[in-house]
Amino acid sequence: MRFQFTKWQGLGNDFVLVDCFKETITDCNQLAVAVCDRHFGIGADGLVTISSSAVADFHMRIFNSDGSEAEMCGNVTRCVARYVYENGLTDKTKISLETGAGIIRSELIFESGKVANARVDMGEPKLTRGVIPVAGQADDTAIHIPVEAAGVLYYGTCVSMGNPHCVIFTDDAAGIDLPLVGPGLEKHELFPKKINVEFVQVLDAENIRMRVWERGAGVTLACGTGACAAVAASVLNQKTKRQVTVHLDGGKLFVEWGDNNHIFMTGPAIEVFRGEYRL
Hints:
lysine biosynthesis; amino-acid biosynthesis; EC 5.1.1.7; cytoplasm; DAP_epimerase_DapF; Diaminopimelate Epimerase, Chain A, domain 1; 279 residues
């Protein structure tokens, strides 16, 4: 199999984008494992396909580096929005994307006539156990609940941003051994569809530090949906205001929980290189 691709990153959370208006690929789950391998493939956190949609401007599918399919990813949403605009697939600057979590809308932000950032309407955070999902009564929330991993008892607040997240507050985000505790939390019996895990250190009412273990990908430099979940959890636990700068290993995202209950995320999207993949 041969196909053209372009490599993008949003704060170091990197993806291989395939334009399916031009290219044909099959068995994306298995292909993602090969493509994302950082030694024998292109290297990425995920493989993303872009195609037509009957309900939005474009259809985006996201395959994690372990071959599983993700419902949603905030960082790649910004990348796809910029790609389709700069490559002439649309002249819109407000772009809707069909995802596994529903329709997500992005708006490109320009500086000096060039795309500088993208602002994404990530929708409403879902807070009940049945929707996230978390084991327990379906209508209950999961705020400050106990969960144990690697012999340590943590307390997490669970939020869905179209995909599930468990946000754990800590006094020292840099000191967390993510490869040690991440797998046990991701696959904990409380989380029937596994879960993304964010360790969050509150710096002040408008700034938090976050590190992430992503479901299906492991340690990544940034997670857009995770940053949104972290802000929601920070507000729910009365730790921050509703407009917060999230400091990740790969850079900063600005996240706002609006009066309409939607969460908005603003950050960069950068093309790294293009090439041809040969399997």
